């Protein structure tokens, strides 16, 4: 879980960075999207690099999901009879990892259908990402979906990053504050960075 | 004080169980939680009913026998063992729920008593230093840096009560296992068996049917001896290190 | 029902002698004994089974070591895990004559201190061996990974403890017993995993099986299923601890009990010095009738805490309002050279005396102050916290008072029993093949045990002494056939056990086991506690058979024998306390001298100190059982002091 999670986290940082180019106008953004497809040329053919990245990502998502499923099954099996009275003492982020993860998985499907394939979007124009983003966020309910998902993502990362560090044995009593701080900063940065795009469209900053 | 207790009653491992309500009166705030249960049991006995079975022994917070989930928290609202919890932590008129540790690896024996043999088997799988009696070198032959000795002690404080498992939403035994791994791992005496110890103990822990760790931290919050959550991290590190060094198969 | 006065009319039997300790210089005896001991061929050891009852420091270490030597060990504990034995609660430390401090310590000094501390009622050979072995124990425990306190140089730290003037006590914060026990438990676990120890947790020994005069097994009850089982062996080792719980309120664990040793006594093992009880001076005073047990505060607190009471009787002002010149630091006043560090029995009795004078503090006036104000001023709060932090926390949790600001209140409580089954130098009881180790035997502490010596003795017996002497016994008694369940002795033991449990359940009276336990406990505390006199002891001897009779008329045990039944466990233990209490009182009555923890009011010096009477009572009293409520037979073992000459103890 830790390794696949970190792979996705790394991707998200780059993804968010790329997204923010939208604030520099259609030229920059579409140019960036085009560059992504020609990455590695002439060694790679058109879109090869992108597909390599996509394959890696799918592998990470599947591994993360399968591990989560197995872990959840094991955890549920380990307590066949639950407590009548239960009082959780862990943080909200920690307690919502499982369902937050499911929400994020559903969101990823929606996100791809929405902005990669355009299946669910009216007026989707292939090859014009700037246009598509603006069009997508014209629907208020789509904004709600994206913003809610990004808040879930923030929570997921907040516990996930720190937790991955512990799993990989990187934590210690002295390093704990640094790791927790990094997790919080990452969560905040990614949530804010991703939310900036729909907010930008809504406020007319991007149009 | 006057209280209403709702206690899990279960005659034997195979019998169905359920919460039963009891009113208790004349409870002094100076009583320990177990003394409050004694009062109830005394009354039940004289009335000819089965008293509530619960594990307890030293009543000083060190043997690790007592094991009550009180109002949904392992050992109750204070960071201590059930036996060192005093009634002054509750208010007159409170309703208190008392349940046994819940974990597949800790089957209920009767009422609030569970079988924690799984912990013993984890220790048996490697939680020791192999030094037969008489084989020890002079105690001062190997100086141990104070920091290492203190760290070992901090982990060695574990009383094996199982509150970590009871509190963990996943029923994981990582904190218990890591406490022993780190106690012995911190000392030069434990070094020769360092790799096999962590691999074998984790394998045994998994085989016992405990849940997986998702680092919720509830174990360390419930631990009456304050074993820190970083203990689990340190064990993960040990485990990864050992997995690289020892070929598995 | 027996006539109570008849019980006090004991008869005197043949004197008893330890035939196992070799002659010669005391420092050579253990070597000599080990050399003269016969050995069992390692290849044959697997065929010998040894039963060990109890998994504390003595039992755990013995089981592990016997298994390492190749014997098949079958071990029992009533707890759910061998790691929970009550040795775990020992706080202070463990003595060893390492002389790491270069402060004049030596094996001979530890030997001398222990014999003197025991008020000359222990056997020199045994005590010397204990002092010799103390050194090896530390080595063994360190190698096991016991995290003893260390100094910055990485070497072991020591402190001085309870009535000695050298720094020879090794410790692991306030949890030395826990750490040593876990060491033994881990060694035992290793042998369980290796298949050399067959561990029965939640199983309680209820009787001893003696066949043809030899201990050959036990009758036990599986506490989960209620099943009565028999287990056979070539030797049986009792490591079941002391009997302090006869007093109901003590620092023992709630379930610590005397059943194993008492049942062995009933089967022929003599019980020695039952009246020697140690009352520990630094316990948290009781708060009310609901109290189920008393909590000890480590004696190490006396190193820095000062004990005092108000000078005037009936002074109920809070401690802070009592000016310095109206306080009586009575230990420092009476015993200027040892001050607050006098041995336990002296400190306890002094506390009782000031409370009897009406100068006690706290609820009911049953307490004295243990004040850290001076230590905090001298060392700083941080240093005090470092030394005693966990004890202060424990105190605050129990009493809701902060000892950094308000002086602690302490009062003596029953803590340890020096008496136990009589054993020879080989730790063998008067029943061949039955051994007793640790607190279960009477051997090393005489009439008073010094602080940090119980852990030392438990581990010395278990790791080093017993494994050597059992070896000798098995070598000399090879190849017995295992007695089957049909053997009359076995069948009788099983039938008696079943009958007793059945009877307990069948009475269906109106009083709980606890109510009887409290009654006998209060009686014992009153008449056989910190100070005793003939009149009180006779009163107790009159009363005990009455309580016993009432018990069998009115006891109420819900449930059945064939199930998990904690009420039945308790009631069955009280059956034995009701007999043991009688023997303790008789022993206290017959020993018309004061010595160590046994203070007879009739035998004191003009200034109120204990007066020993060596010419009449310089012996260990071993009692032979003749029947419930029937006068036992006294066998005297004369104690010879060739190295440490008896003097009246003086700590002034």
UniProtKB/TrEMBL annotation, chain B:
Domain 4Fe-4S ferredoxin-type, first and last residues per copy: 149-179
Record has Iron-sulfur as a keyword: yes
Domain (2Fe-2S ferredoxin-type) ranges: 1-102
Organism the protein comes from: Actinacidiphila bryophytorum
Keyword field: Iron, Iron-sulfur, Metal-binding
UniProt-listed PANTHER family: SUCCINATE DEHYDROGENASE, SUCCINATE DEHYDROGENASE IRON-SULFUR PROTEIN
GO process annotations (BP): aerobic respiration; respiratory electron transport chain
Family of this protein: Belongs to the succinate dehydrogenase/fumarate reductase iron-sulfur protein family.
Pfam families in the cross-refs: Fer2_3, Fer4_8
Full protein name: Succinate dehydrogenase iron-sulfur protein
Cofactor: [2Fe-2S] cluster; [3Fe-4S] cluster
InterPro entries xref list: 2Fe-2S_ferredoxin-like_sf, 2Fe-2S_ferredoxin-type, 2Fe2S_fd_BS, 4Fe4S_Fe-S-bd, 4Fe4S_Fe_S_CS, Beta-grasp_dom_sf, Helical_ferredxn, SDH/FRD_Iron-Sulfur
Highest taxon, organism lineage: Bacteria
From TrEMBL, chain C:
EC number: 1.3.5.1
Keyword entries, A-Z: Cell membrane, Electron transport, FAD, Flavoprotein, Membrane, Oxidoreductase, Transport
Molecular function (Gene Ontology), one example: succinate dehydrogenase (quinone) activity
Catalytic activity annotation: a quinone + succinate = fumarate + a quinol
Topology relative to the membrane: Peripheral membrane protein
Enzyme kind, highest EC tier: oxidoreductase
Predominant location category: membrane
Similarity comment text for this entry: Belongs to the FAD-dependent oxidoreductase 2 family. FRD/SDH subfamily.
UniProt-listed NCBIfam families: PRK07573.1, sdhA_Bsu
Protein name (Swiss-Prot/TrEMBL): succinate dehydrogenase
High-level lineage: Bacteria, Bacillati, Actinomycetota, Actinomycetes, Kitasatosporales
């Amino acid at each position: 879980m830790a390794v696949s999670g970190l792979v996705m986290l790394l991707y998200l940082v780059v993804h968010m960075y790329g997204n923010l180019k939208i604030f520099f106008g259609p030229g920059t953004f579409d140019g960036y999207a085009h560059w992504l497809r020609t990455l590695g040329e002439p060694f790679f053919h058109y879109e090869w690099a992108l597909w390599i990245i996509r394959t890696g990502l799918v592998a990470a998502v599947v591994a993360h999901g399968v591990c989560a499923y197995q872990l959840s099954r094991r955890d549920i099996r380990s307590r066949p009879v639950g407590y009548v009275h239960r009082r959780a003492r862990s943080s909200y982020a920690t307690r919502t990892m499982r369902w937050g993860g499911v929400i994020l998985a559903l969101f990823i499907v929606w996100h791809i259908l929405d902005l990669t394939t355009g299946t669910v979007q009216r007026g989707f124009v292939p090859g014009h990402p700037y246009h598509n983003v603006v069009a997508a966020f014209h629907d208020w309910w789509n904004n709600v979906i994206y913003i809610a998902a990004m808040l879930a993502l923030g929570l997921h990362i907040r516990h996930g990053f720190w937790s991955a560090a512990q799993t990989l044995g990187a934590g210690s009593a002295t390093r704990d504050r640094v790791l927790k701080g990094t997790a919080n900063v990452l969560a905040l940065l990614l949530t804010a960075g991703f939310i900036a795009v729909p907010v930008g469209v809504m406020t007319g900053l991007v149009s | 004080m006057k209280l209403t207790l709702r206690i899990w009653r279960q005659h034997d491992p195979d019998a169905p169980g359920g919460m039963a309500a009891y009113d208790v009166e004349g409870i002094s705030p100076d009583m320990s939680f177990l003394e409050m249960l004694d009062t109830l049991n005394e009354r039940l006995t004289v009335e000819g009913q089965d008293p509530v079975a619960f594990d307890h022994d030293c009543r000083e917070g060190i043997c690790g026998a007592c094991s009550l989930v009180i109002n949904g928290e392992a050992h109750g609202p204070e960071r201590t063992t059930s036996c060192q919890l005093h009634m002054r932590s509750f208010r007159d008129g409170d309703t208190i729920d008392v349940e046994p540790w819940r974990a597949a690896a800790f089957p209920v024996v009767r009422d609030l008593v569970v079988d924690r043999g799984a912990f013993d088997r984890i220790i048996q799988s490697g939680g020791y230093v192999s030094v037969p009696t008489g084989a020890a070198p002079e105690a001062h032959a190997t100086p141990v840096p104070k920091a290492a000795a203190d760290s070992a002690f901090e982990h060695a404080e574990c009383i094996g009560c199982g509150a970590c498992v009871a509190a963990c939403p996943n029923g994981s035994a990582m904190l218990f296992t890591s406490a022993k791994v780190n106690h012995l791992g911190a000392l030069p005496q434990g070094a020769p068996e360092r790799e096999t110890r962590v691999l074998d103990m984790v394998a045994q822990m998994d085989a016992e049917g405990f849940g997986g760790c998702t680092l919720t931290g509830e174990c360390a919050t419930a631990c009456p001896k304050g074993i820190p959550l970083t203990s689990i991290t340190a064990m993960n590190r040990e485990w990864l290190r050992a997995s690289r060094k020892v070929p598995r198969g | 029902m027996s006539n109570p006065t008849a019980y006090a009319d004991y008869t005197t039997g043949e004197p008893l002698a330890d035939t196992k300790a070799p002659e010669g210089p005391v420092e050579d005896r253990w070597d000599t004994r080990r050399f003269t001991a016969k050995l069992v061929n390692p290849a044959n050891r697997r065929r010998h089974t040894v039963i060990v009852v109890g998994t504390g420091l003595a039992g755990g270490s013995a089981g592990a070591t016997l298994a390492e030597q190749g014997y098949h060990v079958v071990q029992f504990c009533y707890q759910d895990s061998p790691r929970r034995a009550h040795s775990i609660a020992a706080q202070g430390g463990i003595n060893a004559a390492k002389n790491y401090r270069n402060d004049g310590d030596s094996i001979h000094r530890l030997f001398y201190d222990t014999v003197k501390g025991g008020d000359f009622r222990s056997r020199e050979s045994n005590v010397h061996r204990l002092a010799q072995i103390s050194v090896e124990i530390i080595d063994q425990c360190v190698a096991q990974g016991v995290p003893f306190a260390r100094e910055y140089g990485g070497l072991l730290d020591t402190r001085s403890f309870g009535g000695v003037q050298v720094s020879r006590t090794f410790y692991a914060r306030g949890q030395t017993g826990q750490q040593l026990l876990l060491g033994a438990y881990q060694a035992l676990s290793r042998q369980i995993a290796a298949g050399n120890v067959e561990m029965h947790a939640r199983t309680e020994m209820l009787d001893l099986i003696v066949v043809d005069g030899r201990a050959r097994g036990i009758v036990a009850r599986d506490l989960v299923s209620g099943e009565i089982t028999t287990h056979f062996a070539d030797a049986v080792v009792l490591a079941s601890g002391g009997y302090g719980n006869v007093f109901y309120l003590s620092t023992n664990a709630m379930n610590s009990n005397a059943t194993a040793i008492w049942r062995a006594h009933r089967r022929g093992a003599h019980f020695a010095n039952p009246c020697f009880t140690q009352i520990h001076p630094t316990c948290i005073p009781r708060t009310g009738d609901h109290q189920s047990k008393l909590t000890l505060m480590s004696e190490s607190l006396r190193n820095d805490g000062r004990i005092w009471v108000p000078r005037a009787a009936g002074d109920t002002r809070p401690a802070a309002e009592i000016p310095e010149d109206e306080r009586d630091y009575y230990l420092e006043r009476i015993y200027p050279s040892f001050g607050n560090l006098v041995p336990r029995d002296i400190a306890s009795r002094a506390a009782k005396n000031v409370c009897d004078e009406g100068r006690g503090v706290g609820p009911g006036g049953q307490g004295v102050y243990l004040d850290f104000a001076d230590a905090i001023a001298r060392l700083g709060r941080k240093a005090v916290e470092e030394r005693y932090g966990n004890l202060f926390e424990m105190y605050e949790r129990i009493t809701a008072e902060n000892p950094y600001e308000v002086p602690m209140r302490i009062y003596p409580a029953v803590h340890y029993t020096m008496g136990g089954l009589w054993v020879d130098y080989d730790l063998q009881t008067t029943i061949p093949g039955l051994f007793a180790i640790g607190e279960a035997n009477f051997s090393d502490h005489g009439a008073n045990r010094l602080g940090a010596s119980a852990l030392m003795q438990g581990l010395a017996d278990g790791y080093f002494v017993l494994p050597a002497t059992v070896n000798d016994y098995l070598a000399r008694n090879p190849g017995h056939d295992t007695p089957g369940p049909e053997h009359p002795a076995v069948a009788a033991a099983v039938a008696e056990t079943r009958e007793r449990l059945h009877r307990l359940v069948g009475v269906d009276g109106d009083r709980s086991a606890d109510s009887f336990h409290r009654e006998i406990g209060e009686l014992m505390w009153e008449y056989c506690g910190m100070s005793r006199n003939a009149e009180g002891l006779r009163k107790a001897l009159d009363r005990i058979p009455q309580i016993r009779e009432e018990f069998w008329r009115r006891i109420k045990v819900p449930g059945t024998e064939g199930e998990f039944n904690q009420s039945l466990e308790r009631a069955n233990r009280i059956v034995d306390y009701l007999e043991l209490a009688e023997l303790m009182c008789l022993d206290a009555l017959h020993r018309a001298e004061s010595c160590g923890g046994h203070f007879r009011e009739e035998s004191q010096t003009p200034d109120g100190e204990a007066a020993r009477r060596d010419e009449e009572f310089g012996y260990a009293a071993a009692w032979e059982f003749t029947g419930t409520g029937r006068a036992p037979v006294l066998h005297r073992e004369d104690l010879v002091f060739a190295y440490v000459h008896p003097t009246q103890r003086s700590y002034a």
